[in-house]
Please model this.
Amino acid sequence: MSTRESFFVCRFTSPRGSRTAHVRAWDEREAVQVFREELAEEDLRERGTIEVVSARDRRRIQTSFDPAAAQ
Model:
């Protein structure tokens, strides 16, 4: 369990393109949640993949993004 926030590089990729953000969060799961919220605020209407990489130890996770599920 983390005792302080870390920085994460979050990337959304779809057939139409990609978006990248730097997110500050406690762990990879929270970084995914924050990034999903940002994508929903941008009214992104396409499915794709979210990849999150820890800036500290380079751990990486990957998950899907479905705008219908974000609403």
